[in-house]
Design a protein that fits this description.
Blueprint: E1 10-14, E2 22-26, H1 28-31, H2 48-58
Antiparallel strand pairs: 1-2
């Protein structure tokens, strides 16, 4: 069996700390321009609604972001 030029375009990785979610890392120099189209995030993280959304997303990681405007953390 001969050796071909095999290169990886990226990684598909599952962290033991974030099961069952996957992370994909693509190497720009190997996969060409725009291999995936980004999904726009329609959450304004500078307001109370965005902060509430972010804290819900962070809850499984036992993390939260306190508001810079001093309202305190909601339990």
């Amino acid at each position: 069996m001969g050796r071909g030029r095999l290169t990886a375009a990226g990684l598909d990785w599952i962290s033991r700390r974030d099961l069952p979610h996957r992370s994909v890392v693509l190497f720009l120099d190997r996969c060409g321009p725009l291999p995936l189209s980004p999904a726009p995030l329609h959450v304004d993280l500078d307001g109370p609604e965005g902060l509430a959304w972010l804290n819900v997303v962070l809850r499984p990681y036992r993390a939260y972001v306190t508001p810079p405007w001093g309202a305190g953390r909601k339990s």
